[in-house]
Amino acid sequence: MIDDLYYIEKHAYRTSIVHRLDARVKLLVTLAAILAIIAMPYSTKVYDLGAVLFALVVVLWAASRLSPVVYLRRLALIMPFGIFLIGFQVFVKNPYYEVFHPIATFPFGIEVYAESVQFASILLVKFIVSISFIILLSSTTRMQDLLEASGRLGLPREFTLPLGMMIRYIFVFADMFGKIRSTMETRCFDPLDRTLPYRYRLRQLGYTVGMIFIRSYEQGERTYTSMLCRGYGANASLQIRGKPLGAGEVSFFAGALALIVLSTVLIYLRP
């Protein structure tokens, strides 16, 4: 999990047309695409809108000059959660259909319905399109840039300050965990090594968890003391400077938003 955190942030520091776009533009385009695919009623029209939006993801991903393996790897990490929830829908009679036609029957009276399979496929399209835009956003935008963009868009300081602290110190915790893991490896300790006694492995993992907790507590105390020395208080806030959008960024935002809105409206109104 810690390695995935560095893996995601590493690609966000690359340089391309998409990486250089203002984070506000990418964030708003992502939100617009997710709202569009979610707002589309559950019908076969979702397939068409999903194809249009996914094509937009493909174009932007190609412009970012990132490898498709990056996208597939991150999608593979998220898909099991979506597949579990979506796959369960084929056994359920959902309220979007009035008549159900069973296509398979299993023991204990469990049946798979054609309408439920269609509903699950529509839900899968919505899930993949939404996750694809999120992967594109996080792979081309640094966490700090996303935080500043949210602040410029009006996110209250009660959210920006804690989020800024979390983003800043989550990597401190990652470094701490990496050092502890390296220490365990240099001592040839592997918690998955079945040649070691189970109770011994469990006891060492308990020591490790306790060590992480104590070091995190000590780091938190040092961080809080440093914040007080720098004037932190109830009225403290994260300073976010204003940043005007360039003509190219405005043009891209207008074009992407027009594509999303027009595609959604035209597909929705199509007989």
Structure description:
With 271 residues, the protein is mostly helical. The chain is 72% helix and 3% strand. Strands 1-2 form a two-stranded antiparallel sheet.
List keywords for this structure.
mainly alpha, 2 strands, 271 residues
Describe how the helices and strands are arranged.
Blueprint lengths: L1 H11 L4 H4 L2 H17 L5 H20 L3 H20 L14 E5 L3 E4 H27 L2 H10 L4 H30 L11 H32 L17 H23 L2
Antiparallel strand pairs: 1-2
Sketch the topology as an H/E string, one letter per element. Answer: HHHHHEEHHHHH
Helix count equals 10
Main beta sheet = 2 strands, antiparallel
Q: Give the N-to-C terminal Cα separation.
A: 46 Å
Which geometry do the CA atoms define?
A: globular
Mean pLDDT: 81
Across the major sheet, the strand order is 1-2
Structural class by secondary-structure content: mainly alpha
Beta-strand residue percentage? under 5%
- In terms of per-residue confidence, which ranges show pLDDT below 50 for 5 or more consecutive residues? none
Q: What's the total count of β strands?
A: 2
Percent of residues in helices: over 70%
Determine Rg (CA atoms, Å): 24 Å
Overview in brief:
The chain is mostly helical.
